[in-house]
Amino acid sequence: MLLIVIFCFFLIISKVFYIQVIEYDKLNEYANNLWSRNLPIEADRGKITTSDGTVIADNLTTVSLVFIPNQIDKDKKEEIAKEIAEILKCDVEAIREHIFKSSSIERVHPEGRRLNYEQADAIDNLHYEGVYLVKESKRIYPYEELLCHVLGYVGIDNQGLSGLELQYDNYLTGAAGSIQYYSDAKGQRLQMSENYVEPTNGIDVELTINYNIQTAMERELDNAMEKYNADGAWAIAMDPNTGEILGMSSRPGFDPNHYQDYSIEEINRNLAIWASYEPGSTFKIVTLSAALEEGVVDLEKDTFYDGGSVTVDGARIKCWKHGGHGQQTFLQVVQNSCNLLVNTGTHLSL
Predict the structure, then answer these.
(1) pLDDT at 341
(2) 92-99 vs 77-88: helix axis angle to the nearest 10?
């Protein structure tokens, strides 16, 4: 009997040791989750700057409305719903749905998101238990349409939806913080000190874009659109020594601050890299330059007969001039912009 008692006692001690030492951190976290609540604090999104330090994608601090339904006086819920709906100028039923919901924390979305200062002050002056205003960060583009297709835009939750905002979303997005408080089983707030977890802001991204070049490009594209009543226009400026893009823009443009006011075609088509466009006769210079570089032609001595068409890989290519240009030197081929010789390269060895 003594051995049995000692063995049982040993088992109890072992279990207590396992719970108090080995499993302490895990069980303590579980316990805290049962009686702790977090009011989220959104981190600032990383800024986007040009190569000279100009901030072209910034953040504006705003606040959003959050309810803790269990902390709101049951007898005042109807009154609170009406007052807040009046401040937010929205349907009272939308607010009532959040207040009477049986959840630990209720974010009022979308009516209570990104509130202006007047609305925030009005709600704060109500001094109701269970009604909180928490910090949020709103993405703003101070130069509006500048580099709009390249930058892209973000959604209501500051998530990247297109352009660089989407491409580098993992870097630009920070880690949210919180104000942690404690409540009992009924959700009533306990008189205990709060824990503040500071948010970690996203990483700033510096572009190769040169602000002066970009603004000049945007201005000239606007002038061209107005002068020629064009359907579209685009331009790219690149440093040929490094391949860095110094400027990129396309029209029609849009304001990323209000991207909802534009069509999908306007906000999602960066024509500078999206549209395909035949180089046409401008590429003839490239073909002839290669021939001159390799020394396979003499512009004044070598000749070519343009009969009006030639067949390449089963496809018939015609010259822009009906019947062709006849016998001509290679210099005349360039002057006449002959399609057959310079585009196909079939007789460059003559």
Answers:
(1) 62
(2) 140
